[in-house]
């Protein structure tokens, strides 16, 4: 029997929220998900989430998946966490520190990841997720920073400005 698209969509959305809850405070790039640990997630849902770029197959000798940045963003939206005032406040703390790196918007700014975490007061995991998923763009609707190598954050001169 084929399930309706509404049932499948509901299962996908619930699966994303479940994966996000399992993630806790960890960086979304660090955790793999094994379908046998999520019996409520339909086998076709794992396939659909992979096909639409929400998960990537780890290609290991067991079936395991990892959230992509788009999967993480979608999970934040489906759970309502991206609209949570405390979540947005944490992003705001990061923005404040990053904006302080710019000097007149004539050039980009650089800050070490360690300094960003220290000055903003957010957890390393939160800051890493914010950078890896470009949450300033996808949650706040503003141009965000990016990585510059493994330990530095590059702040573009148009940081914080809504993209056109």
Task: Lay out the secondary structure.
Blueprint lengths: L4 H19 L19 H9 L3 E3 L7 E3 L1 H11 L5 H15 L9 E4 H8 L3 H9 L2 H4 L7 E2 L4 E4 L9
Antiparallel strand pairs: 1-2, 3-5, 4-5
Helix pairs in contact: 1-2, 1-3, 4-5
Please describe what this structure looks like.
The chain has 7 helices and 5 strands. α4 packs across α5. The strands form 2 sheets. Strands 3-5-4 form a 3-stranded antiparallel beta sheet. The chain has 2 domains: 75 residues, Orthogonal Bundle (Arc Repressor Mutant, subunit A); 72 residues, Orthogonal Bundle (Arc Repressor Mutant, subunit A), CATH 1.10.10. The protein is elongated and about 60 Å long. The model has no long low-confidence stretch (mean pLDDT 94). With 164 residues, it is mainly α. A hairpin with a 7-residue loop joins β1 and β2.
């Amino acid at each position: 029997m084929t399930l309706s698209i509404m049932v499948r969509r509901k299962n996908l959305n619930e699966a994303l929220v479940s994966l996000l809850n399992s993630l806790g405070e960890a960086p979304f790039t660090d955790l793999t998900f094994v379908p046998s640990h999520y019996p409520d997630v339909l086998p076709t849902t794992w396939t659909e989430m992979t096909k639409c770029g929400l998960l990537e197959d780890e290609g290991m000798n067991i079936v395991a998946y990892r959230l992509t940045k788009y999967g993480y963003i979608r999970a934040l939206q489906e759970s309502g966490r991206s609209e949570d005032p405390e979540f947005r406040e944490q992003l705001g703390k990061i923005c404040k520190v990053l904006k302080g790196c710019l000097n007149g918007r004539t050039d980009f700014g650089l800050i070490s990841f360690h300094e960003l975490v220290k000055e903003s007061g957010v957890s390393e995991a939160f800051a890493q997720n914010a950078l890896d998923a470009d949450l300033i763009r996808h949650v706040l609707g503003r141009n965000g920073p990016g990585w510059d190598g493994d330990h530095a954050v590059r702040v573009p001169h148009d940081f914080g400005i809504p993209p056109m």
